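Researcher: I need the complex structure. Ligand is EPU. Inputs:
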Amino acid sequence: MTPDRYVVRAGPPLSGTVQVSGMTKNAGLKQMAAALLAPGETILNNLTPVDDLAVMIELLEAIGVEITSNGESSLCLRVPDQLTPKAPYELVSRMRASINVLGPLLARTGQAQVALPGGDDIGSRKLNLHFYGLEALGVDLRVEHGLIEASCRELRGARVVLEYPSVGATETIMTTAVLAKGESVIENAAREPEICDLIKFLNLLGAKISGAGSSTLVIEGVETLAPTEHTIIGDRIEAGTLMMAVAAAGGDVTIGGISLSDLEMVGRKLSELGVEVTETEEGIRTRRSDRLTACDVQTLPFPGFATDFMPLIVAVLATANGTAIVTENIFEHRFAFVDELQRMGADVRAEGRHAVVRGVPQLSGAPVRALDVRAGAALVLAGLTATGETTVLDPHHAERGYADLAGQLRNLGADVERLG
Ligand code: EPU
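Model: Output:
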C-alpha cells in the first residue's frame, strides 16, 4: 500500500486569485463548543471541512448536541436543555480545541469531566492559566487519572490577571464568565482575531462582552443565552501560508476574503525580505520576483508575528540570501521540523528557542515527514523551490488545519499532488 503523501515539484511562479477558507480550526471549533451555552438551534456558516471538524462534531454529539449539515460549509447545532457534561479521552486526546467545552459545560451544568486535551506536539501546553481563571470564578478543580474534574455551586464574576495572554485561557474564562453573577474583567487577555470573532458570536448569543481586540475584556454576566446564526471569519493562517508560498516560489497572487490588518506583521516581515505586499480591492496582493534577503524573526502573541507562521518563514528563509536568527517565544518544541528541512539541504541549526538559518541557493527534493500542522505546510512550500521531487509523508497533520492545501496551490499553478 502506498502511504498518504504530498508530492511536490518546483514549477513556474505562482499566479492567480484565491478566496480564503473559513477559519475552522482556531475559530469555528471554539464557537461550536461555545454554542453549548445556548439551548436551541444555532447555525454556524463558513466552516471548512478540515479533519478536526469531524472530531468536534463527535465530541459535541457525545455531550448531547444534534448536528446536521445546513448546506455547504454550514452546520446546525441543536443544543438540548440537558447536557451530558463529560468529554471522553478518545475524542479529547485527538484535538487541542476540545478543552473549549470545559467553560460552557461548567456555566450550563455546574460540573464537567473533561479528559486532558491532545493536539500537536509542539510544547508542554499547560492549562494552569485556564484553571487559575476558573478558580477565581468559583470553580473547584481536580486533575486525576488524566481527567479534569470541575464543579461549582455558583459562578461569581471576578478580576483575572493573566500572566501571559493565552488564547485558550482567554476563551475558557470568557465562555464561563458570560453566565456568572456580576462583572468579570480579564486583564492581559489574548487579542487574536479569532478571540474577537468568538466575542462577536457570544454577544450574538446575548452575552455582554466589551473590549474585543484590546488586552482588557469586561464581561457582564447574564442569566441565559439564546441561539443565533453566525459566519466564521476567514482563515488568516491559510492566507499567510499562501503569502509565504509566493515568497518561497515567486509569483503574483491575490488572496480575497481577508484583511491585511489581520496579517500586518506577516506583511511587514515579507516586505523586509523583499516581497511586495499590498492591500487591493480584491484582497491582499503578494508579489515576488528577485531572490530574498534574510531578516530576523521572533514570534509573539498577536499583533506580533504568530508562532503558526514560524515553520513557514523558516522554509522561506532557507533559500534567502544571508543569515537569519529565528526566535520562537511561544512553544518550546516547535523547531523539531528543521531536521526534516535539513534533509532537503537547508542549512538550519536550532538550539532551544533559537534557530540560525543560513540561506542556500537551492534546496533539493527528498522524502520528509510532517510533524505538525504548520510544519507539514512548511515542507510543502520548501518542495516548491527544490530540485527534483519532494514527498511529504503524514499529510494528516497538515489536514487538521488545511482542507485542501495541494488543491489551492495547484490552482495557483504549483505542481503539488495529494496522493494515497
Ligand atoms: N500556556 C500556559 N498556561 C496555560 C495556557 C497556555 O503556560 O494555561 C502557555 C502554553 O504552554 C504556550 C503559550 O502559553 O507556551 C501559548 O498558549 P495559548 O494558550 O496561547 O495557545 P493555545 O490556545 O494552546 C492556540 C492555537 C494554536 C496557536 C496558539 C497561539 C488553537 C486550537 N490553537 O493554541 O494553533 O499557535 O493559540 O496563537 O486555537 C496552529 O494552528 O498551528 C496552532 C498550534
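Model: Summary of the prediction. The chain is about 30% helix and 25% strand.
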